[in-house]
Specification:
Number of strands: 0
Helix content: over 70%
Radius of gyration: 28 Å
Distance between the termini: 58 Å
Largest sheet: none
Length: 92
């Protein structure tokens, strides 16, 4: 499994390449200037979306880690409480 960092980096490289090559493609007539502008905009938005998702994923990861720590502490406390309490007496 790859992290979101890798697709973000690849999209940034592709965006840089488009920015570099688009003027020549427009000049040759292989790419319409309006299409070029739109495609650059879409790629920029894609990168922003991936970056936002990566930030949210990190945030969730931090929250999950905290929740795991809380659950572990609760388990430890319950275990310690059981060790100190006498066994329940059953009615005969």
């Amino acid at each position: 499994m790859i992290t979101l960092t890798e697709p973000i980096a690849e999209a940034q490289r592709a965006l840089a390449l488009r920015r570099q090559c688009s003027p020549a493609w427009i000049k040759r007539g292989t790419l319409d200037a309006g299409d070029a502008k739109y495609r650059l905009y879409v790629m920029e938005e894609m990168i922003r979306t991936l970056m936002r998702l990566a930030a949210e994923q990190r945030q969730l990861s931090l929250c999950d880690t905290g929740a795991q720590e809380v659950r572990q502490e609760v388990r430890r406390k319950r275990c310690r409480a059981r060790q100190h309490d006498p066994l329940p007496q059953h009615a005969a």
